[in-house]
Each structure stands twice: as structure tokens, then as C-alpha cells.
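Fill in residues.
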């Protein structure tokens, strides 16, 4: 994980995300921070979220509408998420076969320092019964 400067805005974003269950949008996060009486520009929220995702300090998923959602994750290793398209419920998934395949694919083509993002979404059991 790359190091990220521990700025006031970075700490505020991490603290706010720590109090949130599940994934939220940058706009929702910005609103929560403002309601806490803190001043931060929405552009700053977006910039800090990008840095925090890149450093591995927070997780991001993309909805089927193309919107990025963010959360503070308790898992410190690379992993993927299975998310519900309707309610947003998310499950961390362990995918050793996928990790092995991506490593082999990169090696076959001479690539190193591989990064990847896999977005998996469907309908959770609760939303299937609606």
C-alpha cells in the first residue's frame, strides 16, 4: 500500500466512513461531513477518496449505473465484493482462482505489478423475494 499524507481532510473522511455501514457515494459522504460541522469542498472529497482507494485504505465499488461507492473496509488484504444492484448489500469474497488466473495471464504477456478490479453484482436473497 502506498503511503498517504495524514491530512485533516483525509482523517475526517476516514473517521466519517468508519461510522457508516456499507458503501456510500462521495456526495453522501460530503453531506455527512458537512452535517458534522466540518468544512470541506466536494472536489476535495473526490480527490481524497481517489487517494485512499489507491493506497488501499478504503474500498470502492461501481454500481450498474456507473456510480462509485466507498467504504472503510476491515479486510487488509486484496479482495473483491459481491454487491446487490437493488439494496447495495455487499459481501467480501475470497477468490484464489481469480488471483491465480490474473497472475498467470500477466506473466504470459510479460506484465508485472498487476492491479485489477472486478465488479460483481446481482440480486441478494432479500431482493430476490421482493
Amino acid at each position: 500500500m502506498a503511503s498517504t499524507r495524514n491530512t485533516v481532510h483525509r482523517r475526517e473522511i476516514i473517521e466519517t466512513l468508519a461510522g457508516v455501514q456499507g458503501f456510500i457515494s462521495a456526495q453522501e459522504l460530503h453531506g455527512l461531513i458537512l452535517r458534522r460541522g466540518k468544512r470541506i469542498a466536494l472536489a476535495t472529497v473526490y480527490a481524497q477518496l481517489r487517494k485512499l482507494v489507491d493506497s488501499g485504505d478504503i474500498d470502492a465499488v461501481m454500481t450498474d449505473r456507473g456510480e462509485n461507492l466507498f467504504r472503510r473496509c476491515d479486510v487488509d488484504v486484496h479482495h473483491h465484493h459481491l454487491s446487490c444492484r437493488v439494496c447495495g448489500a455487499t459481501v467480501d469474497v475470497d477468490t484464489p482462482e481469480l488471483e491465480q488466473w490474473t497472475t498467470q495471464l500477466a506473466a504470459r504477456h510479460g506484465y508485472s505489478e498487476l492491479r485489477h478490479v472486478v465488479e460483481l453484482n446481482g440480486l441478494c436473497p432479500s431482493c430476490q423475494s421482493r
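Strands lie at 24-25, 59-62, 68-71, 80-84, 90-93, 119-122.
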